[in-house]
Write a structure and sequence with these properties.
Elements (H helix, E strand, L loop, with lengths): L8 H16 L3 E6 L6 H14 L4 E5 L6 H6 L9 E5 L2 E5 L2 H7 L3 E4 L15 H10 L3 E7 L7 H8 L9 H4 L4 E5 L3 H9 L7 H8 L4 H28 L12 E5 L6 H15 L2 E8 L6 H16 L3 E6 L3 H11 L4 E5 L5 H6 L4 H9 L3 E5 L22 H25 L1 H16 L4 H18 L12 H50 L3 H16 L2 E7 L6 E3 L9 H13 L3 E2 L11 E7 L2 E9 L8 H65 L4 H33 L7 E3 L1 H11 L1 H4 L4 E4 L7 E3 L1 H17 L7 E8 L4 E8 L6 H4 L20 H11 L3 E6 L5 E8 L10
Parallel strand pairs: 1-6, 1-7, 2-5, 5-6, 8-9, 8-11, 9-10, 11-12, 19-21
Antiparallel strand pairs: 3-4, 13-14, 13-17, 15-16, 16-17, 18-20, 21-22, 22-24, 23-24
Helix pairs in contact: 11-12, 13-15, 16-17, 16-18, 17-18, 17-19, 18-19, 19-20, 19-22, 20-22, 22-23, 23-28, 24-26, 26-28
């Protein structure tokens, strides 16, 4: 009968996080296949039709039928959200209308082609990011995906087919799926569909048959898809088993477990298990059991080397705590559904095996139940004899524990001598037994054993007749002595074992608690900086060490230290970090690579790509136990997830910026071409007409040419001014200015545009001089007047005022009109590039107010847009003002 096992804290934590996340978001179902044409979209639509019959509120977000009649027929009756049309380089592209779906809020959304790249200008660069937003909004999603679009399988697909896959989905996104439905089709059937034109049409089908759709390619892709789904199902099964207390293994698939210790023979054992796993096509686990007895430095080095070899050969490494090796191996085997346990042949003396209750293999056979046990003999040519599994290194208890035992026994002996005349030797024996049991709660196994032997002999010598001899005269006294001796030893051993189990349970709880606190901190962090800071502070406390994180940057390709680190990396330490980054392997102290380094370097790896390095530096006299290093690797895995999440977010932001830049680029080109076309057409027509015009018409034509030329000049100047502002080349030349002169010059330059509007000014005659750039301020006032003239109906008044605000030491210029006015939400947006008012007339690039703000800010001022009482808009320019007498002499 197999031994009961405790739930794995790591598995419980993972299940808790998964359930919490699923409770907050919608459910994702992926219809998964080996390649195009197997029927993923068809299966998704059939499932949708069944859901519709069950009354589920669903919509078709986007489905690509590729002209397949049977697929298009399944769309009948399904509500479809119209696609969003995006203009890109003169072409109309249709994409998923995410905003419309979120506004509609159905229960279920159908989104085809999970790995699709959206058109520039979309809300997200990738369609899987659209799906994530739908899930976060609480909507269920059905989607489709081929195995070649998985990030971790893209290289394998390229090696199989020779085709490079550019559209991929990160495996971490695929893990969001609540359900995977594998759509499988034999290669022969798929090739038949291809010949019938049910996959591709025309020349495309012939090209596919000669390239991607070869029988060997399809068979390999089918195996890849089947293995991937099988691995996911196996992982899910192990998670479900780990959250409970499994009593037996389920032979749904073979899985090997090998016990790895510090013995040099473990290297041979690991290689043997790898060969056996490869022959069976099975996964395998390498388990190290850490007892309460610390290993010496050499044994710890050998153990790390053996575990590193297991990792390199493809094993999943598990480190657990227990003083009972057999119980630990069976527990891990049950939690991971391992059907076979591989151990080495015991080389312990037979008498020691008898004391332990049998050899390691015998105990595994008794407790393993249906688990197969493989015993591998050691090679005789090995240079260093020893046991296969050195799980019991010699370790002595502290001298203080022996001193405590001696003090208790001396005190009891003195007390026993005092009460012997009254209590009898049997009562004193019970006191000794009680003392041994009490000592087992405080001291180790060997001090308890010493206490049992010493107390039994003392009791016999001083209290059992005949006194002061080790002779026992009566049979019942001999039986009592023997019973006492056995009870003392057994109770001490059992109590020590319970204490050890409690200690290991506490270590597992501490590990789970540490990971829980870490995930909570990382989940609450809003930015990467907050997440790294929280993780490093927890690591500092947990490992009693200084830590650092180096994060990779896409721009340089090299990792850079994060500012939150408490460990400063010298040039030498940076070299170790770079090696760990490039090779995606551990390095530094406690490893065989650059062991002279101060820190222990763990690469942050996601999908076989390094995204950073986690560094722990403990004091030279301290060390990290194997369990602590395993916990550090868990920390590194969590940090890698956070860094990858930030990288995905940053990539999305970059795509948005590129899309916005592309939009602005198109807007600028469209605006410039339109603005140039009109005056150029006027110039061409007027110039052509001048040759045949009479004297009366020539004046009008000349005026049109002058107006068109002025418009062209204004356009070119605006573009040049915007370029100067963005490049930082604008340097204002401040000098003493007169408000009357500035206004007169600005009004004179825009006189023609103001002719259709009543125009008034209000400038005090005694307005003092102020410092400003004359040319810039003249252009600011002129542009504000032009803006008012162009965007207000003819005949409406325009008003300009200037003055001083003594309370705030600033001069102001105000331009007010009686036009349509400015809504509050529009006022700040108007000062951005290429922005125009909602009621603005056609024409113009939307640069005027942006240039005005740039000119004003360059002079240390500000511009404010507001509502004119009675209707219309008000623009006020403020500049710093200092009276002439306070200005220092130049």
């Amino acid at each position: 009968m197999s031994a009961p096992s405790r739930p794995d804290p790591d598995a419980l934590l993972a299940a808790l996080r998964r359930d919490e996340a699923r409770a907050r978001r919608g459910r994702l179902k992926i219809f998964f296949g080996m390649c195009p044409g197997v029927g993923k979209t068809y299966a998704m639509l059939r499932a949708a039709q069944r859901e519709l019959l069950d009354g589920v509120d669903l919509v078709v977000g986007i489905v690509e039928t590729h002209g397949r009649a049977e697929t298009e027929a399944l769309l009948a009756g399904l509500p479809v959200v119209p696609r969003k049309i995006i203009l890109h380089r003169g072409a109309e592209l249709s994409e998923l209308d995410l905003e419309a779906i979120l506004a509609r809020r159905p229960k279920l959304v159908l989104v085809d082609e999970f790995a699709h790249t959206n058109a520039p200008g979309s809300r997200h660069p990738k369609r899987y990011q659209d799906v994530i937003e739908l899930l976060d909004a609480g909507l269920d999603v059905y989607t489709t995906l081929n195995v070649q679009h998985l990030e971790s399988r893209a290289d394998a697909v390229r090696q199989i087919t020779g085709a490079t896959v550019h559209e991929t989905v990160p495996d971490s996104v695929f893990e969001l799926a609540d359900q995977i439905e594998l759509i499988d089709l034999p290669p022969e059937s798929l090739l038949e569909r291809l010949r019938e034109g049910k996959v591709y049409l025309g020349d495309r089908a012939a090209a596919a048959a000669q390239g991607f759709f070869k029988d060997a390619h399809l068979t390999a892709l089918r195996e890849l898809a089947l293995r991937f789904v099988a691995e996911r199902v196996d992982k899910r099964l192990r998670e479900l088993r780990a959250t409970g207390s499994p009593q037996t293994v389920w032979r749904s698939g073979e899985r090997l477990l090998v016990a790895v210790g510090p013995s040099p023979f473990s290297t041979q054992l690991v290689r043997w298990t790898r060969r056996m796993a490869a022959a069976q096509g099975a996964a395998w686990i390498a388990v190290s059991v850490e007892s309460s007895r610390p290993l010496d430095a050499e044994s710890l080095r050998r153990l790390e080397k053996n575990l590193a070899l297991a990792r390199e050969l493809g094993a999943e490494v598990v480190v657990t705590h227990d003083d009972d090796i057999v119980a630990a191996l069976v527990r891990v085997a049950l939690q991971n559904n391992a059907t076979q346990i591989v151990v080495g042949q015991s080389r312990s003396p037979r008498w020691l095996d008898l004391l332990r209750g049998g050899s390691l293999v015998q105990r595994l056979l008794r407790r393993g139940g249906p688990i197969d046990i493989y015993v591998v003999p050691a090679e005789r040519a090995a240079e260093n004899p020893g046991t296969w599994l050195d799980f019991h290194p010699a370790a002595s208890s502290p001298a203080g524990e022996y001193a405590e035992v001696a003090a208790v026994l001396v005190a009891l002996t003195v007390a026993g001598l005092l009460i012997a005349p009254y209590a009898g030797y049997l009562a004193i024996g019970l006191l000794y037994l009680l003392a041994v049991i009490a000592l087992s709660l405080r001291v180790g196994r060997w001090p308890v054993l010493a206490a049992g032997v010493a107390s039994a002999l003392t009791w016999n010598f001083l209290f059992i007749p005949p006194l002061y001899t080790f002779v026992i005269a009566k049979l019942e006294d001999g039986m009592m002595f023997g019973t006492y001796f056995v009870v003392a030893l057994v109770s001490g051993q059992l109590t020590a074992r319970i204490r050890a189990a409690e200690r290991h349970e506490r270590l597992r709880e501490e590990r789970a608690t540490a990971l829980l606190h870490l995930t909570q901190a990382l989940g609450a962090a809003r930015t990467l900086d907050e997440a790294v800071f929280a993780a490093l502070r927890q690591a500092d406390t947990l490992f009693r060490a200084s830590t650092a994180v180096l994060v990779g940057h896409d721009s340089t390709g090299d990792p850079a230290p994060h500012f939150a680190g408490s460990f400063y990396l010298s040039e030498k330490e940076r070299g170790v970090a770079d090696w760990a980054w490039r090779n995606r392997k551990k390095a530094g102290r406690f490893t065989d690579t650059l062991p002279a380094a101060e820190g222990f370097y763990l690469p942050l790896v996601r999908d076989e790509r390094a995204v950073g390095v986690f560094v722990i530096r403990v004091a030279p006299e301290d060390t990290l136990t194997l369990a602590q290093r395993d916990l550090a690797e868990s920390f590194a895995s969590q940090l890698a997830l956070v860094v990858e999440r930030e990288s995905l977010r940053a990539a999305g932001e970059r795509e948005k910026l590129l899309a916005e830049s592309d939009r602005l680029h198109r807007a600028l080109l469209d605006g410039v071409s339109h603005e140039l076309k009109t005056p150029l057409a006027v110039l061409a027509a007027a110039t052509e007409a001048l040759a045949t015009a009479d004297d009366g018409c020539r004046g009008e034509l000349t005026a049109e040419i002058r107006t068109a030329t002025r418009r062209l000049n204004l356009l070119v100047n605006n573009l040049l001014d915007q370029t100067r502002l963005e490049s930082g080349a604008l340097r204002p030349r401040l000098d003493w200015c007169d408000a009357h002169d500035l206004v007169n010059a600005a009004v004179e330059g825009v006189r023609d545009s103001l002719d259709a509007h009543p125009f008034e000014t209000a400038i005090p005659d005694d307005l003092p001089l102020f410092r400003a750039d004359t040319a810039l301020m003249e252009q600011v006032i002129a542009n504000l007047l032009l803006n008012a003239a162009h965007h207000t109906p003819p005949g409406t008044p325009i008003f300009l005022a200037a003055g001083i605000e003594p309370a705030r030491d600033r001069v102001f210029f105000t331009v007010a009109d009686r036009g349509p006015g400015l809504p509050a939400a529009m006022r700040e947006r108007l000062f951005q590039k290429f922005q125009r008012g909602d009621a603005a007339r056609a024409g113009g690039l939307g640069l005027g107010l942006s240039i005005i703000r740039g000119f004003v800010v360059a002079q240390g001022g500000e511009i404010v847009a507001g509502e004119n009482p009675g209707g219309g808009a008000v623009f006020t320019v403020y500049l710093p003002y200092a009276p002439h007498g306070k200005v220092p002499a130049e």
